[in-house]
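2024-03-11 09:14:02 INFO worker-7 job=invfold-0412 stage=load source=structure_tokens
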């Protein structure tokens, strides 16, 4: 079944007859003890809330979280946000589902991007860091994962190949900073940039929707990659203890602040540079994605950015 309507095109009072993936579902009661089902629906263009008010007992058994469903209903406006009042819902058969309807993919050639990553590794002069990078980026799981994984669920680079794009963007920013500031250890900073989000390969699952894995929820990508890198470093004879400590510090502090989930705050020049580079790319990309989705001159309020975004008129 070809998807006819996408979330980005929905407007108030518009009839809806299309397919979506169910990210969340919860059966609840109103204040008047009326049963209803609350949904979080998604496709490759975004997410939208849905409500089932009628025939709740019938539809309650018709689908589960994670199912792709056919929905008929109408778009409503509740507290300034769009949602779908669902009149009918039915689980899709596998032959009715086109996965490309649910996960966007980068328009860039991921093989070309990965070659740029490999070329960057060749520029590393430190033999221990170069060996570490070559070992990691020759692993089949890592190669496939970084080409496929998104960089986040809803904030920036939220598409297949997003992790690779974000990694290269952060690396380019770091290369520029290393050129400007000779006090920076370029090899250490670039290594940190290439590896700072490698744990997201295991943090996310991304078949039809981007969600966190069990390890992503319980451990998180920073802890995942710190453990992973420690094991990879152990495989290299005579890897300097000081270099190991500084590299792991880059990984542990790259979110910059405790309030952003960083186990440590940056305490070296390279760690500070990486944290700022990571923040810069994620923020700018967020602006790009918000303005690209907005059909108005001003976007809705964006929680991550703490503001509405102005979109220039065409």
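2024-03-11 09:14:09 INFO worker-7 stage=emit residues=314
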């Amino acid at each position: 079944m070809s998807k006819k309507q996408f979330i980005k095109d929905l407007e108030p009072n518009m009839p809806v007859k299309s397919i979506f993936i169910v990210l969340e579902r919860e059966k609840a009661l109103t204040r008047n003890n009326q049963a209803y089902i609350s949904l979080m629906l998604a496709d490759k263009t975004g997410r939208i809330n849905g409500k089932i008010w009628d025939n709740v007992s019938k539809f309650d058994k018709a689908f589960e979280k994670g199912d792709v469903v056919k929905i008929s209903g109408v778009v409503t406006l509740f507290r300034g946000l769009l949602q779908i009042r669902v009149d009918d819902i039915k689980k899709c058969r596998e032959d009715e589902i086109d996965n490309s309807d649910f996960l966007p993919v980068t328009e860039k050639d991921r093989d070309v991007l990965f070659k740029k990553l490999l070329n960057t590794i060749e520029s590393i002069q430190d033999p221990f860091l170069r060996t570490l990078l070559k070992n990691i980026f020759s692993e089949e799981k890592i190669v496939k994962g970084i080409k496929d994984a998104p960089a986040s669920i809803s904030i920036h680079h939220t598409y297949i190949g997003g992790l690779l794009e974000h990694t290269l963007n952060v690396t380019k920013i770091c290369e520029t900073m290393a050129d400007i500031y000779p006090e920076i250890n370029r090899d250490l900073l670039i290594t940190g940039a290439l590896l700072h989000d490698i744990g997201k390969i295991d943090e996310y699952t991304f078949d039809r929707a981007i969600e966190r894995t069990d390890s992503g929820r319980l451990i998180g990508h920073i802890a995942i990659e710190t453990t992973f890198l420690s094991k990879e470093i152990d495989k290299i004879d005579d890897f300097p203890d000081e270099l190991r400590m500084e590299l792991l510090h880059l990984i542990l502090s790259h979110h910059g602040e405790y309030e952003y989930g960083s186990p440590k705050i940056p305490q070296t020049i390279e760690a500070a540079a990486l944290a700022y580079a990571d923040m810069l790319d994620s923020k700018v990309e967020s602006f790009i994605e918000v303005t690209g989705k907005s059909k108005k001159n001003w976007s809705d309020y964006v929680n991550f950015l703490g503001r509405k975004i102005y979109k220039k008129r065409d």
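2024-03-11 09:14:09 INFO worker-7 stage=report msg="The domain at 110-293 is CATH 1.10.3210 (Hypothetical protein af1432)."
2024-03-11 09:14:10 INFO worker-7 job finished
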